[in-house]
């Protein structure tokens, strides 16, 4: 534990969230960098958020519903609005995200103190809320260039398993020409697959599984953001879960581990899971000032 990053205690109506330094939550078995924080919200905070969410309109997709706050991104990836995040999405979550700090000896840079310290707006300015009824998911994808490459996902109401897999094309192209990586503008990548991600004998790729408990926070950044795809299988039960297949096993609550073990590695998705994904959109246009020609922030 670093001396530079003391514990932070935050109280809420008698319940308390105690956050340690970010390094305590690193998912060691994943490529750099992913952090998993169980019990990031109290049960009361979770209920309050769920009731705010239920009072806002949803955008309906084929299998899912979502809410973009404060506004959807434009087709070119801009946030076009004069609004900030609503207060109920800002407090306590953003306050808490901004208090999470790196161990500076490992981060090796005095400028990189918090997860949003060097992002353009120094804080998340956008939240995408997704709803996943049992049996639904999201196809493997990457979040792309519209955002600063740090993603903070809060899970509510039910668990989900996020599956992360390396972008095969990047790895195979850098394998064939390992000396060309310095000319790449989009990613930093290595010529070999990370341990555990070799193809198995059937030509299928091994996938990292991250088990997200209700009220937890997952942070992904760096190589996890730039060189990997993430998705959620559209299943009504998650299978094959164990201490060897779940990357964040050591960070899970004891009750969760017990549930997984008692189900022999299978956990049913009984109820709807809601996620709140906090990101900093790089290009913001103030809708109110657009016609004055001074719209970009
Ligand atoms: O709901 C989640 O945990 C993942 C959401 C996601 O992949 C996204 O918003 O890009």
From TrEMBL:
Subcellular location: Nucleus
Recorded GO MF terms: dioxygenase activity; metal ion binding
Gene3D superfamilies membership: Alpha-ketoglutarate-dependent dioxygenase AlkB-like
Region (Disordered): 170-203
Keyword entries, A-Z: Dioxygenase, Iron, Metal-binding, Nucleus, Oxidoreductase
Keyword Cell division: no
Chief place of localization: nucleus
Low complexity compositional bias, start-end: 172-203
SUPFAM superfamilies per the UniProt record, alphabetical: Clavaminate synthase-like
Fe2OG dioxygenase domain residues: 123-282
GO cellular component labels: nucleus
Pfam families for the chain: 2OG-FeII_Oxy_2
Keyword flag Cell inner membrane: no
Similarity remark: Belongs to the alkB family.
UniProt name for this protein: Fe2OG dioxygenase domain-containing protein
Organism encoding this protein: Dactylellina haptotyla (strain CBS 200.50)
